[in-house]
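ok new one. same drill as before - structure tokens go in, u give me an amino acid for every spot. 137 of them this time. try not to just spam alanines like last time pls lmao
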């Protein structure tokens, strides 16, 4: 728009004024040229056949401390049944302590799937490598 107007008009601060006008103009926003590569088609996730076959996990950190001093939560979620395990942990746990928590989960039926998933993930740099070395994997 600036170049089009510059052919016939000019005033001090013209470019700044045009930028302000275009930022507030609804029509200008709607017809704005997209400078990004077009997105690909959505690829749906496959539906698991068994519960705990496909899981996701997350670490929620920087929480207020509980009475027992926990300040993080390890969330393990099953995509099929939409059930989750919430394990209280300390954000400062070493790889030894994470290995201990992992070993205590053996009574839960999700362990084979969790083990496969955890082997593929890294927790803050080389901590994941230390963790699996101590568990024996």
């Amino acid at each position: 728009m600036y170049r089009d107007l510059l052919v016939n008009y000019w005033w001090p601060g013209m470019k700044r004024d045009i930028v302000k006008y275009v930022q507030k103009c609804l029509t200008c926003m709607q017809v704005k040229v997209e400078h990004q590569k077009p997105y690909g088609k959505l690829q749906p996730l496959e539906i698991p056949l068994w519960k705990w076959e496909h899981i996701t996990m997350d670490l929620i950190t920087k929480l207020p401390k509980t009475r027992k001093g926990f300040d993080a939560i390890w969330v393990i979620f099953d995509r099929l049944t939409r059930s989750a395990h919430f394990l209280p942990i300390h954000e400062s746990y070493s790889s030894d302590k994470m290995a201990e928590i992992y070993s205590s989960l053996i009574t839960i039926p999700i362990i084979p799937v969790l083990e496969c998933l955890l082997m593929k993930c890294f927790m803050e740099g080389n901590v994941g490598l230390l963790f699996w070395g101590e568990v024996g994997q």
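The beta strands are 55-60, 72-78, 84-89. and btw The mean pLDDT is 76.
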